[in-house]
Amino acid sequence: QVELAESGGDSVQAGGSLRLACVASQFAFSSRCIAWFRQAPGKEREGVAAIGSGGVTLYADSVKGRFTISGDDAQNTLYLQMNNLVPEDTAMYFCAAKRMPCGSLVAINYNYWGQGTQVTVSS
């Protein structure tokens, strides 16, 4: 049973930073496409960033230059470093995984999901 467990969500002021973590178990972390999604109340789930085998990354336009996705294969852990946060970044953030290739930030293409961690950014 594949399991993904997120942590690191918090409440911060605009301009602040957070680092989210996602620990994966029961699959070979380095052989998958692992991604972060977010969902704000009343909105659809949107892709934020993804990373695949070889370190290839993909970002949503709204977070480019502010967020960085990275992975620690030895620890089976995915990270999302979020800088210069704005209130529009407020959402529940989810970790998700699928088989390679890693060219999509469309939620329906991802098979495995964590429970989410809440990020709240106040102005």
Helix share bin: under 10%
Order of helices and strands: EEEEEEEEEEE
Give me the Rg, rounded. Answer: 13 Å
Distance between the termini: 40 Å
Spans where pLDDT lies below 50 across 5 or more residues: none
Which word captures the global form?
globular
Beta-strand portion reads over 45%
Give a short account of the largest sheet. 7 strands, mixed
Number of strands: 11
What this model shows, in words?
By secondary structure, the chain is mostly beta strands. Helix content is 0%, strand content 50%. The protein is built from no helices and 11 strands. It has strands at residues 3-7, 11-13, 18-25, 32-39, 46-51, 57-59, 67-72, 77-82, 91-99, 112-113, 117-122. The strands form 2 sheets. Strands 2, 4, 5, 6, 9, 10 and 11 form a 7-stranded mixed β-sheet that branches. The N and C termini lie far apart (40 Å). The mean pLDDT is 94.
List the main descriptive attributes of the protein structure presented here.
123 residues, mainly beta, seven-stranded mixed sheet
